[in-house]
Design a protein that fits this description.
Chain A: This is Sugar ABC transporter permease. The complex is a heterodimer of chains A (about 300) and B (about 290). Chain A is an all-alpha fold. Helices cover about 70% and strands about 0% of the residues of chain A. Classes of the chains: A mainly alpha (about 300), B mainly alpha (about 290).
């Protein structure tokens, strides 16, 4: 690739001298726009995290002081631990559900299109609407769950008033929103597997569990990687769902790093420390994505090349 | 690891076990997916007091009062228009930029091709909510808070990489020979793009458009951080604000508002469901 050689020759339009620049003219406008805005924001955020701001947004350079303050802040430490457990539980539950849905959407014959179409619906519901809907499922008076409990003659529960239950509900709402996309990705992987492999395994007397772990799972490894990236990206950056569901409460039981970041910057107007949390979110998400890419995409490529 | 047993129960379990498991999971999927939406619809037709008593699942009388109240909110048409304007712009502009870029990536070999393609991917792993702090600071400095421009800029920037990645896959899968024969017929790049590539990659263009639409219509964190005037709110922002702005909680109104914000996008999805689902399942859309 030493020269800029178009794979397709342009017609004799007389613009021959421009030709080497054509791909750049096509590719760069979008990229420059994206990098201009998002790159500017990331760099601006890092600079902001090194400054102290007052109420009028006057900045003074303070070096790493914000980082030291934030990392020593017990409220941040609690939010960080909470976020990690939120992410881990969401990933485990989310991948389990996505895999179950994908397998069942693969197996179902009658109404296949309907079930697939239906399964993706939550992906198109906004985070705020998801949160509002889950509030009315679990709200104490008039919630779906308590109405059902009342019909069964059971006492009502304060689902969103109890710290542990509220945390669980937040995870459920998060899963409701993120599982559909992940399960369709996994379904795509399962569909590409040659059916003969299953038949051969069945003839050899393998049971469904063995078939899943020995055949299905290894063959959809790249798709599993993609859905893992999606699930952990969504869980790490969950913000609107939790903000509208619980606002971080009760008793800060659902205050994740993203919620605390919003609180610090927009309620307490401490933009310097808010920017530190932005950097934390950014670093964690990037590291996690790189690990997944290394394990699932790169590892798989090397494996298949070695197998040739 | 089930051992082969010959008892009738074991045999029955072996025959029916997988089927029962499939039906159980499928039933769970349907209930899990539909309940929040159906409950919101049912509650939106109830009387506010009836909701509080949580006696029955179905409304005693199907009332349209909540919808009437939402539609007569003084700002409703403004918020709806804001959402529509921002969504249309943040779908069309990214699509144009992405079509050009994807064509460049799919059809030309050039220096830094891989690096530039990778640069298009990076924005997708940045948690967007993390950018609200610096964006608020930077856009305040530029005097862009409470403008359409600031929403256009941020929405477009986050949609371009998504659309580009979808379209690179679709364009790349179109055989080069088809385009080459068009070249021999004297078609230049624009004509080839318009008359060969776009029609052939149409499912991809539709999918990219729907997903851009989805991002813009549902976007919340940017509008939360960059807008604070009531008349600049979009529907998701107003839905969030309902929580604080209603003195006594009128749950029916709340649910009706939710349904009205969700419905337009769901209709678009239902119309184009086949193309979108197929594109995702075929692996053409990766986060």
């Amino acid at each position: 690739m030493s020269h800029t050689t178009p794979m397709v020759e342009d017609g004799p339009t007389g613009a021959d001298r421009l030709k080497p620049f054509v791909p750049y003219l096509l590719v760069l406008p979008g990229l420059l726009f994206v990098m201009g805005v998002l790159g500017y924001a990331v760099v601006g955020g890092i600079i902001l995290s090194l400054n102290e701001t007052d109420m009028f947004m006057n900045k003074t350079f303070v070096g790493l002081k914000n980082y030291i303050d934030v990392f020593a802040d017990p409220r941040f430490q609690a939010a960080m631990l909470r976020t990690l457990s939120f992410v881990v539980i969401s990933i485990v539950l989310g991948i389990f559900m996505s895999m179950s849905f994908a397998l069942v959407l693969y197996k179902v014959v009658r109404g296949r299109r309907f079930f697939r179409g239906l399964s993706l619906v939550p992906y198109f519901v906004s985070g705020i609407a998801t949160a509002v809907m889950f509030r009315f499922i679990f709200t104490t008076s008039g919630g779906f769950v308590n109405t059902v409990l009342a019909q069964l003659g059971l006492p009502a529960q304060s689902w969103l008033g109890d710290p542990t239950l509220a945390f669980v509900v937040a995870i459920m709402a998060n899963c409701w929103f993120m599982v559909p996309f992940a399960s369709l990705i996994l379904l795509g992987g399962i569909q590409t597997i040659d059916k003969d492999l299953y038949d051969a395994a069945a003839i050899d007397g393998a049971n469904p569990i063995q078939i899943f772990f020995r055949i299905t799972l290894p063959l959809i490894k790249p798709m599993l990687g993609v859905s893992l990236i999606w699930v952990s990206y969504i869980s790490f950056s969950t913000f609107d769902i939790v903000l509208a569901l619980t606002s971080g409460g009760p008793l800060k039981a659902t205050e994740l790093v993203s919620i605390y970041m919003y609180e610090l910057a927009f309620r307490q107007l401490n933009f310097g420390q808010g920017a530190v949390l932005m950097v934390v979110l950014l670093v964690f998400n990037t590291v996690l994505s790189l690990i997944y890419i290394k394990i699932f995409v790169m590892g798989d490529r090397r494996h298949s090349e070695a197998g040739k | 690891m089930r051992v082969q047993e010959s008892g009738p129960m074991a045999l029955l379990f072996q025959r029916l076990g997988p089927k029962v498991l499939i039906w159980f999971t499928l039933t769970f999927l349907v209930i899990w997916t539909a309940t929040p939406i159906i409950w919101a619809i049912l509650s939106s037709f109830k009387d506010p007091l009836e909701i509080y008593e949580s006696k029955s699942l179905l409304p005693e009388v199907w009332r349209l009062d909540a919808y009437r109240k939402v539609l007569s909110m003084p700002g409703f048409s403004t918020w709806l228009m804001n959402s529509v304007i921002v969504t249309v712009v943040a779908t069309i502009v990214p699509l144009i930029l992405a079509i050009l870029a994807a064509y460049g990536f799919a059809r030309y070999a050039f220096k830094f091709r891989h690096v530039l393609l990778l640069l298009y991917l990076i924005p997708r792993i940045i948690p967007r909510v993390s950018l609200i702090v610096p964006l608020n600071d930077l856009m305040s400095d530029l005097g862009l808070i409470n403008t359409y421009s600031v929403l256009f800029i941020t929405y477009i920037a986050s949609a371009v990489p998504l659309a580009t990645w979808i379209l690179v896959g679709f364009f790349g899968s179109i055989p080069k020979e088809i385009e080459e024969s068009a070249t021999l017929d004297g078609a230049n790049m624009w004509n080839r793009l318009r008359h060969v590539m776009l029609p052939m990659a149409w499912p991809g263009v539709v999918t990219a458009a729907v997903l851009c639409l989805r991002e813009a219509w549902n976007e919340f964190s940017f509008v939360l951080a960059l807008v604070n005037q009531t008349d600049m709110r979009t529907l998701p922002y107003q839905l969030y604000m309902l929580k604080d702005s209603m003195g006594i909680q009128d749950y029916a109104v709340y649910n009706a508002f939710t349904i009205l914000t969700v419905l337009p996008l769901l209709l678009v999805y239902l119309l184009l469901e086949r193309k979108v689902v197929d594109s995702i399942v075929s692996g053409a859309v990766k986060s």
